[in-house]
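User: Could you walk me through two proteins back to back? I'd like the raw sequence and the structure tokens for each, with a short line separating them so I can tell where one ends and the next begins.

Assistant: Of course. Protein one, sequence then structure:
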Amino acid sequence: MLEPSSFGQNVAGRYFVKMHGLHNHFIITDGRLEAYKPDVAEVVRLCDRHIGVGGDQLVVIEPPTQIGQKGGAEAFMRIINVDGREVEACGNATRCVAWLLMDEQATDSIVIETLAGLIECNRAGEYWVQCVMGRLTTAWQDIPLAEARDTLHLDLGIDALGDAVVLNIGNPHVVFFVDDLSAIDIEALAPGLQRNPLFPDEVNVGVAQITSADHMHLTVYERGAGLTTACGSGACAAVYAAQLRGLTSESTLTVTMPAGDMTIEIRDDSVAVMTGPVAHCFSGYY
């Protein structure tokens, strides 16, 4: 377990904590006292499991901006993919950082600032964290799309997947619903979808199978990271998309991904609340 007093101290290099949320691994380091701006080569090396610490993303905790301070944020969370690209949101990483900060501050609730906005986080049990991920939108210009299209039934020309729901929850997602998730080779289909000119910022690709009114199975292929064992923002997007399509009337669903389950609630104001586990792997210096 991480000792709160040790977080962020540099003794023989830069201190880091390795955590995961449903096997989605993160290298987390503290840039609040000493700014840390790694270049792409350093990010790639650190995230490489063969020569570095190994992770799906590098996360740097920074002081909140002026906007964040006014909103009561404890810190700003900078999220960098394995290819060096900075992204707006990551639900699994948010839970891990929230757990660290709540442990550090000896509190059960905290607000984290991200490029996607302020996220309220609460302790939900032993190594479980709840995050209010924000409002979902299907407005084409907010996703963004390159042109106006029907975001509830978007035909991208892949017969095996059918038409999609496209939406944004701080980052862009396209969600397909299929009868048999095991029959879909998402690793073969997703890269071409992500490069579609309709998505100027690329897109996270999710494929879901509804198994009951309050349960779905989901696989997500993320921008810059590829196939993941779990995706918090993708789970939020998939549940909201299922509601919009009329595939469920429930407000709360269990979402099963390759590494396990999380719970997603969609409030009446279209705000998603994600609850899921975190785990501490190890800490050290690089």
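----
Protein two, same layout:
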Amino acid sequence: MKLRVKAGETSFVVALDETPTSKALSKVLPFESVAQTWGEEVYFEAPMSANLEPGARQVVEPGTACFWVEGSSVALPYGRTPISGKDGKPKLAARCNVLGRIVGDPQLLAKVKSGDRIRVEAA
């Protein structure tokens, strides 16, 4: 399954993996939220909750779509976060469930600003 995310003036697609959290997310589509940023990460609340999955990670590749369990939010890192290590890879605030991957260049997320309206729907 794929999601279309419209964030401010930016639009992109997320290809979802087959995981319990991605399946739960697809069941609450469409929904709207408000973008927040943390370093080179965009995140936004989703109207669902999930448990931490066995494959949850804190350090991911840029463009990995994640679900932050504690914040009930989708996290989309595209570069360094305030707690990234010397390798510069995105380090999330906590271990997160991996949902899938942004299709294309994740650097387009740099155009998204805190407060931008977000709409998530099936692609």
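The helical segments are 20-27.

Let me know if you want the two compared in more detail.
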